[in-house]
Amino acid sequence: MAPPKPAPNRADLRVACPQVAPEMPRKAIQDGSEGVVRAQALVDGAVKEVTILSGPRVFHAAVKAAMMQYKCTQDATEILATQEFVFKIE
Fold first, then answer.
1. What CA–CA distance (Å, rounded) separates 48 from 34?
2. How far apart are CA 12 and CA 62, in angstroms?
3. What angle do CA 38, 89, 31 make, to 5 degrees?
4. 77, 85, 68: which is closest to 10 by C-alpha?
5. pLDDT in tens for each of the 90 residues of the chain?
6. Residue 41 Cα distances to 10, 32, 84, angstroms
7. What domains lie within the chain, and their CATH numbers?
8. Are the CB atoms for 84 and 63 separated by under 8 Å?
């Protein structure tokens, strides 16, 4: 039996990855929706997986699309990072 894989390190994405801002969804603009989305990413040089932890559903696809574009600079260790996105209509 293979030894268990170590858990990813926890980190802040602002340290490891240049930011790509999510676009405000048209539906959110039409509805006047605002909110905060909290998302977690599994990173290994690039974002491998994004999990939405909380926030209005209308923003989930925009957050996932933005985070999947991150090109990260770090060592080869997988990290699990959490980030918040604030959506405001200006």
1. 27
2. 20
3. 90
4. 77
5. 544 444 455 555 555 577 788 999 999 999 999 999 999 998 887 888 999 999 999 999 999 999 999 877 766 578 888 999 999 988
6. 10, 28, 11
7. 9-87 (3.30.2420.10)
8. no
Instruction: Find tokens 């996932």 and name the residue.
Output: 64
- Residue type at position 72: C
Both tokens of 54, joined, read: 């909380």
79-87/35-43 β-pairing: antiparallel
Question: Amino acid letter at 88?
Answer: K
Cα–Cα dist 55/46, whole Å: 24
Supply 21's token pair: 């801002």
